[in-house]
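Sample pair:
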Amino acid sequence: MRREMPAIWGLIKPLVVYYIGYYVIRMVVGTLLAGSGMVFLMESGSTVVNGIAMLGGCVVLFPMIEEEKEEERKEKKRREEEKAGGKNSVPDYLALAVFAVSSVVFFNTLVSLSGISEQSAAFQETAKNQYAVSLGMGLFLYAGVSAVAEEIVFRFLLYNRLRRSGGRVAFGVVGSAFLFAVYHGNIVQGVYAFVLGILIACAYVYFDHFFAPVLFHGLGNAVIFLSNMIPGMYDIVFSPVLFWVFGLITVAGCLYFATAQGLIKRKQKTDKNGSV
């Protein structure tokens, strides 16, 4: 048990350090801006403070980010030597953008149809706070700050550490998605975040570039935020016809990721065995 503790700490360290940095900065900034101490942190106006705290939480992770960048450089060099990697084109990222929007809307609709969102007071309060900001500020916070900060923590750091520790990509994908779900703090966002966390990690695996999960996350947040802020857009995006269209695209994308991952593994095995 004593031997396992350092290993466990090494895996969850990025999340713990991020949380500490986030809450310390949130308290300090909230107090300085509001002049009313801890009371301000419980109000909807703290949404902006949260964004500042998320950036601050990432700043304290810089040493670990640099370590991970070095590990990633070594791994990419090995993959290039084994001829296992490949360059992604603009059409690839356009396809990812379509898949991201489709899956986010599709799973959002499924969560809404399940009825669990109406049963969660925590989710209702979170949603109220999220849409209490202006359109421009919301896009900056959710499509920019939130997407980058959370992807640094959960995919760039946690996914990679879990993957290396477990020796399997699947362990990193599921493990990081689970922590991503717990991080959101309520059952509605937790279920949604777990499913999307798996898809975002799969995009990271396939593209082998940090831009992919950030693009996925940022676009997803932007579409949901805009749909709830722009009059009439919600009825279009969440219409019955688009539900089925987005559902088909989501299923096709998931199948493609699964097939592509299998082909990559077979190719790596063939290259190592020296077969043609």
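DSSP finds twelve helices and no strands in the chain.
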